[in-house]
Amino acid sequence: MEEHNHKITNENEKKTLLVIVFTVLAMIAEIGYGYFTNSMALLADGYHMGTHALALGLTYAAYVLIRKFANSPLFPNGTDKIGTLTAYTSSLFLGFTGIWIILEAFQRFFNPLQIKFNEAILVAVIGLIVNAVCILIMEGKHCHEHDDYNFKAAYYHILADALTSVLAIAALLVGKYFNFILLDSIIGILGGILILKWAISLLTNTVKILIDMKE
Fold it and tell me: ∠192-19-25 over CA atoms, to 5°?
């Protein structure tokens, strides 16, 4: 059974590295075109994807450390909390990003900029496709059978990012065809709140584990 779990963990590590590559490429494209097209929704999606790239990077680093120190006397109680610590750290970055997006969206709400909708929609759709590919990569019959919470956290990051991409596309389409440009800022605010809420939840759960707090 232990060998089976070890094999699943190695598979999850490889999947995480592959997803990091796709996520970073999409993040660069969305942030770059977000500034070029003046789309707050696209910027929110890009920075949101950036927080996921960071979380995925921490997830991968945790796998490397867990594997390296699996039988080390430095960790007499095991290395399980390494993954929890990385999740705690990523929740802090996630929270700061959510706050920044909310503040930036409020500024755009009162000082809206002209959005280049066609370019913004194109990149947002590409971002959503990348998210869908990443979800397919991370899916598998063992994904939810093994208690690899480090991997599950990364998996839910991608799912949340896909949702934000859908919201960004919806805001851009409404802005283009109904000239409701302020919806772009509203979606940016909602996206920031979603990120912040997820960060608080992750922070709370990881702190409980790190300090061995009873439920």
Answer: 70
pTM: 0.70
Q: Which residues of 98-109 are buried (b: 16+ CB within 10 A; e: fewer)?
A: beebbebbeebe
22, two tokens: 């796709």
Helix (H) or strand (E) holding 152: helix 149-178
C-beta separation of 193 from 120 below 8 A: no
Question: Under a CB-based contact definition with an 8 Å cutoff, are residues 112 and 169 in contact?
Answer: no
Taken in order 148, 23, 50, 114, is the CA torsion positive or negative?
A: negative
Please check whether residue 53 is in contact with residue 20, taking contact to mean a CB–CB distance below 8 angstroms.
Answer: yes
Of 106, 111, 117, nearest to 36 by C-alpha is: 117
Digit-coded pLDDT (tens) for 9-41: 678 788 888 999 988 888 888 888 888 878 776
